[in-house]
Each structure stands twice: as structure tokens, then as C-alpha cells.
Design a protein that fits this description.
Structural class: alpha/beta
Order of helices and strands: EHEHEHEHEHEHEHEHHH
Low-confidence stretches: 260-264
Radius of gyration: 17 Å
Strand order of the largest sheet: 1-2-3-4-5-6-7-8
Distance between the termini: 13 Å
CATH architecture: Alpha-Beta Barrel
CATH class: Alpha Beta
Number of helices: 10
Mean pLDDT: 96
CATH superfamily: Metal-dependent hydrolases
Number of domains: 1
């Protein structure tokens, strides 16, 4: 039994086939899905999908790529919807200097605004980070409440930095790149990280794992990520499933039917 802790069922690549995608994922052991928004429109859609399907939960937020374009009304919309019972996190938020570092200040402003909402409503944060590891860490360290949790989504940073984030009460999530042949960094993270700090995700429709690399990703492919982590850690698939399932349920405060530990 597994949970896709980060998937974009609201993406135009997946939504037209959502029934099929959910059913195929369930047939491959996926119990639940965290459907993640990245701007107001996709967040509205994530919430709509969560209302449609019992096994889908929503995260609503504004991606750093939207820093130049978001409006204050978008932040107000987020706050108005954070009390919805199917909203389980704020995100994805964060910093991304890969495409454009010229709007660094705006990205940080947007990041801090969402962290402040998370502190206020006691919701976990889903953090996107690309080519911005130092600034991401410093913003979280300065602004996130100490007892607030969250996850470094599709973690691409070094193993050496993992402890910095876990010391801030954050989980580390691994995705398709851990299966790539020459992906030394995520494999090192997978090998060394404590299972108490680990989540798994597809980030579908992006980053399909081997043997489907380059194709449209789906939640059914989560099994390949888990299998690779189990091989790297020299443990069983069941052990990885058990810990990542329980960690995801704990982080997102999922419904009572998911809180039962099926391995006890």
C-alpha cells in the first residue's frame, strides 16, 4: 500500500484520462494521491478533483515560476480555501533559479507569504527547489515555525544538505530520477537517508522513472521508484512502502481510514 505524495492530476496531460489513471494506480497498490497546485487555476482544479474522488487530497499553492505574475488576490484565494477539509498542504512553493534568477526578490517574497500562511493555519509546506539550495534553506530556517512540518519535493540537493532540512522538521521526497542510471546524487540520498524522513512521489506527468523515462509519467509508476530505493538500501519493497506510507499519512494528516497502520 503506497501513496503518491506529489502528482499533478490537474495537468492537461493527465486530467482527460483521470479515471483511467486513478484506477491503474490503485491496481498497482496506490492507496491515495496528493494532487498539487502551482498557481491559482491549477490549485482550484486540484481542489475540484479532491472533491470528486475520496482517495485524492489537494495541496494548493503558487510555484516560484509564477512570482512575476501572481496577484495579491491569488494569495487571498489561497487563504480562503485553506480550511477546506480536503486541503492538506500549501504548495508547491519555493525558489527556482534554473530558468530565471532575475526575479529572485519576488520569488522570496512569494515564498515567505506562503510560509506565513502555513504557520497561521498549521498546514505543512511542499517545497520546490532548483539551483537555489542555500537561499531555500535560509528562507525556511528564518520564516517557518519550528513545529511546522513539510517536504522537500523531488529533492535534488546533495546528501550533505539533507540533515539541514530534516533538522528543520522537513521530509525528503524522492521521485523518478532515483531510478536513472547515472543519477549519483539521488541514489546517495536514497542510500543514506533514514526511512523516518523519506517520502516517495511521481511528480507526474513529469520525470517518469526507468523503464518509462521520457514518457508521460503516471502514479502507477510509483512502484519502480520504491523498488529502486529498496535495492539501493538493501531492504524489502514492503519496508519502503510501510515507512513512506506512514510518513505521508503523518505529514498530511490524512483521513482516519489511512491512519490505521496496516502492518501492525
Amino acid at each position: 500500500m503506497i501513496i503518491d505524495s506529489h502528482v499533478h492530476l490537474n495537468d492537461e496531460e493527465l486530467f482527460p484520462r483521470i479515471e483511467e489513471i486513478i484506477e491503474k494506480a490503485k491496481a498497482n497498490g496506490v492507496k491515495a494521491f496528493i494532487c498539487v497546485g502551482y498557481n491559482k487555476e491549477s490549485s482550484e482544479m486540484a481542489l475540484d478533483i479532491a472533491n470528486m474522488y475520496d482517495e485524492v487530497y489537494a495541496a494548493i499553492g503558487i510555484h516560484p515560476s509564477e512570482a512575476k505574475h501572481y496577484k495579491e488576490s491569488d494569495i487571498l484565494w489561497l487563504e480562503e480555501n485553506l480550511s477546506h477539509p480536503k486541503v492538506k498542504a500549501i504548495g508547491e512553493m519555493g525558489l527556482d533559479y534554473y530558468w530565471d534568477k532575475s526575479n529572485e526578490i519576488k520569488q522570496k517574497e512569494l515564498f515567505v507569504k506562503q510560509i506565513n500562511l502555513a504557520n497561521k493555519y498549521k498546514l505543512p509546506i511542499i517545497v520546490h527547489m532548483r539551483d537555489a539550495i542555500n537561499d531555500t534553506y535560509e528562507v525556511i530556517k528564518e520564516h517557518k515555525a519550528k513545529d511546522l512540518s513539510g517536504v522537500m519535493h523531488c529533492y535534488s540537493g546533495s546528501w550533505e544538505y539533507v540533515k539541514n532540512f530534516t533538522d528543520l522538521n522537513l521530509y525528503i521526497s524522492l521521485a523518478g530520477p532515483v531510478t536513472f542510471k547515472n543519477a549519483k546524487t539521488p541514489k546517495e540520498v536514497a542510500e543514506k537517508i533514514s526511512l523516518d524522513h523519506l517520502l516517495v512521489e511521481t511528480d507526474a506527468p513529469y520525470l517518469a522513472p526507468m523503464p518509462h523515462r521520457g514518457k508521460t509519467n503516471e502514479s502507477k509508476n510509483l512502484k519502480y521508484i520504491i523498488k529502486e530505493i529498496a535495492l539501493i538500501k538493501k531492504t524489502s519493497v514492503e519496508e519502503i512502502e510501510k515507512h513512506t506510507f506512514n510518513n505521508t499519512v503523518k505529514l498530511f494528516n490524512l483521513s482516519e481510514d489511512l491512519k490505521e497502520n496496516i502492518w501492525d
